[in-house]
Specification:
heterodimer, A: four-stranded mixed β-sheet, 4 strands, B: 299 residues, alpha/beta, six-stranded mixed β-sheet, four-stranded antiparallel β-sheet, 35% helix, elongated
């Protein structure tokens, strides 16, 4: 049997057995339901209430104003309802009662009170008032009614952004994508780290490991565990995200769109980061022989993940500072910090390849080290193995 | 032929193995005996590649054991262990595939061995749902599922009830009959005596006695038991007075003596007949347990 076949066999068992467990199904269902709720609930709760504006319109207001008001509302992402109002007195009464947000008369826009500048209503009112002024000026100029109508219904001129400016300053739309991506990796590292640890200790705890190491080499067993846990993580991410994405697709909600570069960098670092930390979790967990001790054993690794995540926020304020430069290259912190620095700052052309290279190298070294620890610790039952003893023993037992 | 040659292994201050050598032939069952701490488990782990020796080597069919060769060995470790939450059949299929069988063949063998150890109705159960005895059967099936050429079992009879002992014995005999070499450790010497073709007795990391059971029992001086119809406390001392006769055990009516090659056993018969009615005069072979005590006791 080739080594790859052994690793695949171990990983395959890991995946099938984990997926069959009730806890896997329950947690997948719960998280999927939670994500769907997170997508659906804000829309249901908002229900078009806060962001919907109602304008009263008096009969002798030019019809072309409706178009201008609707266009303004769409630009500001609010729903607009235009209510025909018989006369000024009825309109003012409705305004006072709160049934209307504003009243459009032929010569003025009436409000119930002063508006804050960031209130979407202020934006709509500004456009309507300006259109109203134009309409009056056009009427006073004595243009023929057809020309006047075309004038009032004119489309606004398009905007043009200079390409050079876009290159120099990172796309601000990358930021939400970046934080979602880094957050996902952080959650995956924390939750699946425990899984990797448990999977490694499981065999020591049940003592089945002695039969196993008689047929496969310990580092193959270890690699199979890590690949298997990664497959479980990936499968669960897909299962959890799919319903939410389907809901998003069905309801037409817009997701924050990032640039392809940021997304590619996040995917790359997701893979690199998971490989690095899964190996670290496996190595530290293999020091103990009971499942209850796993959390203690992997605590240093968990703490490192948390510190790395916090470091990302320290880096976003000055993505090109010395701290950011260093942490983006340092293998344990790079998986979270480098995507942030790449999206928000200006890394040199050699920095990303160097960070990737260092990360791959560190993971390889860690796999070797973890293999040695595993060999030395795997047949030590009972008390927690001391790292030094294990490495000494591994030197003798390495096959 | 499995050959262990000059194995040594030290754990800290403990010399677990100190030049252990013995061999196990195909088609034969070898009992691996020795007091606790004699090095049996360490030796078996070395054969299975779980531990490495400081010196010495393990050969199978005249060549050093490699990973590929070892995949055709079957192993039942002293520390029993299975995946508790895994179903019986899945578990056996997985282990068979780790031994290099393809999925279809692994499935066939798993089904056959589940049948063989009498667990056909429990094939879909999780291991933790089985009784202790049934878990032992799964453990045995796990060692046998790939029809190994060499079967290494550490204390396979520990914790079995008499019926379990019979079933285990039958399976080991069956394995040897199909040409496998079988080696197992045990403290149940009477059982070993009945079941084994060969024994290797290890003490302080060395083989102190090894060979075919029948031959070992014939080796050494002849033993004869002389029994009278009535009590005769003077029988032993009287026998001791004869040339080349040495009493080794006595009851109030009988004496067991060892005879040197030159001793004349007719003298012994005449002596006994002169002292009373002779009811038994028979050659006896030593029990394995006696050989064991002699081998490990005096050293």
């Amino acid at each position: 049997m080739r080594p790859a076949a052994a690793v695949r066999l171990v990983a395959g068992r890991e995946l099938t057995e984990r997926v069959r467990q009730r806890s896997f199904r329950i947690s997948t269902l719960l998280v999927a339901a939670g994500l769907v709720a997170a997508v659906v609930l804000p829309r249901v709760l908002a229900g078009g209430g806060d962001e919907a504006l109602t304008l009263g319109v008096l009969p002798d207001v030019p019809a072309e104003l409706d178009g201008a008001a609707t266009a303004a509302a769409r630009a500001l992402d609010v729903t607009l309802e235009l209510t025909p109002t018989p006369d000024l007195a009825a309109g003012e009464a409705a305004l006072r009662a709160g049934d209307l947000d504003a009243l459009v008369a032929p010569g003025e826009v009436v409000l119930s009170g002063p508006l804050a500048s960031d209130d979407p209503l202020a934006g709509v009112v500004r456009v309507v008032a300006s259109a109203l002024g134009t309409a009056r000026a056009v009427a006073a100029s004595g243009l023929d009614p057809d020309a006047a109508r075309r004038l009032l219904a004119a489309e606004p001129a398009p905007e043009r952004v200079l390409d050079t400016a876009a290159d120099e300053d990172p796309d601000p739309s990358d930021e939400p994508v970046l934080f979602i991506g880094v957050g996902l990796l952080y959650i995956a590292l924390l939750s699946y780290g425990g899984l990797v640890g448990t999977a490694v200790v499981e065999e020591k705890a049940s003592r089945v490991v002695e039969v196993l190491v008689a047929t496969v080499r310990p580092h193959q067993l270890l690699a199979g565990k890590i690949v298997g846990a990664a497959a479980v993580a990936l499968l669960q991410l897909v299962l959890v995200a799919t319903p939410a994405l389907l809901v998003v697709g069905a309801t037409g909600t817009e997701l924050p769109s990032g640039s392809a570069g940021t997304i590619a960098s996040l995917v790359l670092w997701f893979v690199l980061g998971f490989a690095f930390y899964a190996t670290a979790y496996a190595a530290s967990a293999s020091l103990v022989s009971r499942v209850e001790e796993v959390q203690n054993a992997i605590f240093p690794v968990t703490a490192l993940v948390v510190v790395t995540y916090l470091a990302v926020f320290g880096v976003t304020s000055s993505p090109d500072g010395a701290l950011a430069r260093t942490l983006a290259l340092f293998p344990p912190t790079a998986p979270l910090v480098m995507p942030a620095r790449a999206a928000l700052g200006h890394p040199g052309p050699w920095e990303v390849p160097l960070a990737v290279g260092l990360s791959v190298l560190a993971t390889y070294g860690l796999v070797r080290l973890a293999g040695r620890i595993y060999v030395g610790a795997v047949l030590r039952f009972g008390s927690r193995a001391r790292l030094r003893d294990v490495l000494v023993r591994a030197g003798r037992d390495r096959r | 032929m499995l050959a262990l040659g000059g194995l040594t292994r030290r754990f800290g201050d403990v010399q677990a193995l100190d030049g252990l050598s013995f061999s196990v032939a195909p088609g034969r069952i070898c009992g691996f005996l020795g007091p606790n701490g004699a090095g049996k488990t360490t030796a078996m782990r070395i054969v299975m590649g779980v531990t490495t020796p400081d010196a010495g080597e393990v050969a199978w069919r005249g060549a050093p054991v490699t990973d590929a060769v070892r995949r055709r060995f079957g192993y039942m470790p002293e520390e029993r262990g299975l995946y508790a939450k895994m179903r019986v059949r899945d578990q056996l299929v997985y282990l068979a595939r780790l031994h290099g069988l393809n999925r279809a063949e692994a499935g066939r063998r798993a089904d056959r061995w589940i049948e063989e150890v009498g667990l056909a109705e429990r094939a879909g159960d999780r291991v933790l749902e089985l009784s202790q005895g049934n878990q032992q059967r799964v453990q045995l099936a796990a060692a046998l599922v790939h029809d190994p050429e060499l079967l290494v079992l550490d204390e396979p009879f520990a914790g079995l009830d008499p019926l379990g002992v019979d079933r285990m014995s039958a399976l080991l005999r069956e394995g040897a009959a199909t040409g496998a070499a079988v080696v197992f450790s045990s403290h149940q010497l009477d059982l070993v005596e009945d079941l084994c073709d060969d024994v290797a007795i290890v003490h302080r990391g060395r083989a102190v006695l090894r060979g075919p059971v029948a031959e070992l029992k014939r080796r050494g001086r002849r033993r004869v038991v002389v029994e009278l119809a009535q009590a005769d406390p003077g029988l032993g001392p009287a026998a001791a007075a004869l040339a080349g006769v040495e009493p080794v055990a006595a009851t109030d009516r009988s004496v067991t003596v060892e005879l040197e090659p030159m001793a004349d056993d007719r003298q012994l018969v005449e002596l006994a007949m002169a002292r009373g009615r002779l009811v038994r005069f028979a050659e006896v072979t030593p029990r394995l347990s006696e050989l064991f005590r002699q081998a490990v006791g005096s050293r």
